[in-house]
Predict the structure.
Amino acid sequence: MADILLSLTMPDDVAQLVEDLLLSRPDLARGFTVSQAEGHGAEIPLVEPAELVSGHSPRTQIRLVGPEDRMRAVLDLIKSELPRAKIFFWQVPVIAMGRL
């Protein structure tokens, strides 16, 4: 089965919960990358005064690579453990990966 890239974008207050969940399941997530992002658009509620001024909301993005069945299991795990987390995700095929 080919590897895919799973990208998860979430509110900052959910990120640590997702990280802990992924770390508890090394059989599904061998490793992942976390970075800060800015959420823009009609689907992103701007609540705090700083968000209203800047026009975006802070987000955390987590990316992980693995076989499609494992990435599907990661999504199922998050959905069962954090059903109201408001996490946006997408998957794309990985053409190549390695270490340089």
User: Anything to note?
Assistant: The CA atoms of residues 44 and 57 lie 7 Å apart. The domain at 3-93 is CATH 3.30.70.120 (Alpha-Beta Plaits). The chain is about 30% helix and 35% strand.
